[in-house]
Amino acid sequence: MTSKPMPEAALARHLAQTPRPSTWREFLEPFLAGLDSPTGDRIMMLMEESRGAWAVLLAQQPGTALFVGNAVSGTVPALAILGWQVTVADPSPERCAFAERRDNEYAPGKVSWVHAAHDQLPFAPKSFDLVVREDAADGLDLARAPSLEKLKSLSRGAQVHLADNRWAYKRATGERGRFRRHSPLSFLRQALFPAPGLHTLAGHRRHLDPELQTRTFALYPDGREFSHVVNLDGRFPRLTVGPRERANLPKVLARKIGLFPLLTPSFALINEAGGATFSARLLAFLAEKIGEEAGQLDQLIATRSNCAMLMTAPKGVHMEEEHAPISGSWVIHIPLSPGKHRVLSQHVQFMRRAAKEFPQLKAPDVLFEGTFEGVYLCVARRIGGWTATHATDDAGQMAALAIDLGRLLSELVVRPAQAFSTEDFERLLGQRFERVAQKCKRRRTAARVHAATDSLREALVGAQLPLMFHHADLRAKHLIIDDQGKVRATLDFGSAEPEFLPLVDLLHHLGHQRKQKQQCSAQQAWKELHNPATRSGHEQQALEEQAQTLNIETHIVEAMLAAYPLFVAGMAEANWDWSRPEWIHREFGW
Asked: I want to staple 11 with a disulfide (CB 3.0 to 4.6 A). Which of 43, 80, 94, 531 is the partner?
């Protein structure tokens, strides 16, 4: 089976045209801008380093690793950052040369590339401590890929197979957050006449070394875009099943009768001798450093921002039901890219500042920041309860949250109101909005960005405005709430800024909540929030209360609502490792 093709011809042209000394970002962004949106989206998804989050479950100590798959995969730099010396085997010289530009910058001296023709691997038996074959990637011909039996002979330690399930009930489409569920007919066709590389869990296990232990995990919801690594042999790490998921009765029933391992779309099979895994060694290390007994690894999340997030809980404790801090309950962030390392350092800095200067935000306590076995990580106290994401369908809770959050944010003043100067505008807004315009693929989009920037400048310069401590990403998943919708904790300060405009955090929360509640586009959510006629009562109240508290005139509120796409795009550009050329057009229609 060959999955959706990689644009090797476009890769070759770009490699020939781009000066060698350019940085990875300078090299990558023009290439993405030259692709159609579906192809660009698939490549960006493939490059996400969070694809390697499963590697924290390996018992094999980092050494030499062979990666067989698409060289562009983010799994490669993730393994290197976790300490492995990686050799990449890919039959495409274009993909190898493309990935070389990234890996030499992200993990200098840690990765080498061999464009070996399919199963003709030029390695002696027992050459590697770890051998990985990753099937869920564009451009791979699984009918001609090296067999697991062949790869078994190359390993002197561990073997990992990242594989697809012939009984999968859905697949990632390649567009962020979009999945295609099989019709009954297509499901039966796939199950009864599987393409090469598709097997059941038992079928995949048969190809691994029977002398070694095989631990199996689901990469859920799909190996191309997964958020959870879920143990299929035991209870932990587990899959989050919140109130919204519980409303899906077929899904709940299927899990209760044990169909999850049968139907889950993708697997990670780890075949190795026993021993303490990296995560187990890490928990023992942290118990000594933090001075409390470690809980068990409750959940393992592969975040969209490219880190492995390990969440612990004491045995028998369901953290979603707890409201008081509990010893041994931690959230461990391990960055899998250099950019995420920088963001996590900022996250720790601002979390500590918030705890000291703005206790009303209820930021988690930082418990540790440092390295373990050469890998940087940070640890914070895990706060019990549900994030606001799981209460999205409860209109009463969401209304209460909007009001409570608006009042809380009004207290975060770091510079009292004064005339907002031209210099203030350029420092806080103008430079970042110009970057958004420069990175747009479409001229029409850039023109809209410039026009909106000019309108906002005209409205804000000279107005009396305070500056606020700015979280910058107050989506529902970063807020833990109580049963009445009140804020119990604020999470994830990786995008925070020491000062910014008022109202923006509230606008971002309201816009994202409307998008999530209605399952609509960002453009529709923004237009409905911008229009007073379609604004809900609690949205209007939250905006009015914050404006009144901070003495912000109504026309300023409306000008900022009109510029909402600028604020979202500006925040994204300030934190992304690279620009997504079609993003603002796709999200907001500009």
From this structure: 94
Q: Where are the alpha helices (DSSP H) in 193-301?
A: 201-205, 243-246, 249-256, 260-263, 278-290
Q: Are 78 and 49 in contact (CB under 8 A)?
A: yes
* Residue extents of the structural domains in the chain: 8-272, 286-381, 388-588
Residue listed under structure tokens 């999340």: 301
* Model pTM score: 0.95
Interval 208-214 mean pLDDT: 95
Can you tell me the distance from the alpha carbon of 530 to that of 528, in angstroms, rounded to the nearest whole number?
A: 5
CATH fit for domain 8-272, picks 1.10.10.10, 3.30.420.40, 1.10.540.10, 3.40.50.150: 3.40.50.150
Q: To which residue do tokens 């000062």 refer?
A: 499
- Give the residues across from 393 on adjacent strands: none
Q: Is the pLDDT of residue 5 over 80?
A: no
What is the tens place of the pLDDT at every residue in 41-100?
A: 999 999 999 999 999 999 999 999 999 999 999 999 999 999 999 999 999 999 999 999
* Alpha carbons 311 and 188: distance in angstroms, whole number: 37
Separation of alpha carbons 330 and 310, rounded Å: 8
Q: How far is CA 140 from the centre of its chain?
A: 24
| Tens-digit pLDDT profile for residues 483-529 | 999 999 999 999 999 999 999 999 999 999 999 999 899 999 999 99
Q: Across all residues in the chain, what is the average pLDDT?
A: 93
Cα separation, 92 vs 98, whole angstroms: 10
| CATH top class, domain 388-588 | alpha beta
> Residue 2: pLDDT above 60?
no
Structure tokens at 171: 């697949």
SS (H, E, C) 149-192: HHHHHHEEEEEEEEEEECCCCEEECCCCCCEEECCHHHHHHHHH
pLDDT (tens digit, 9 = 90+) per residue, 8-48?
A: 899 999 999 877 778 999 999 999 999 998 899 999 999 99
In Å, the largest CA–CA distance within the chain is: 74
Cα separation, 306 vs 67, whole angstroms: 19
Domain 286-381 has CATH 3.30.200: yes
pLDDT at residue 359 above 60? yes
Residue 136 confidence (pLDDT): 82
- Please check whether residue 129 is in contact with residue 60, taking contact to mean a CB–CB distance below 8 angstroms: yes
Q: Which two tokens stand for residue 481?
A: 């709430």
Residue from 91, 115, 88 nearest 102 by CA: 88
Q: What is the pLDDT of residue 141?
A: 86
For residue 61, which phi and psi values (nearest 5 degrees)?
-65, 145
DSSP of 284-352, one letter per residue?
HHHHHHHTS---EEEEEEE-TTSEEEEEEE-TT--GGG--S--TT-EEEEEESSHHHHHHHHHHHHHHH
CB 453 within 8 A of CB 482: no
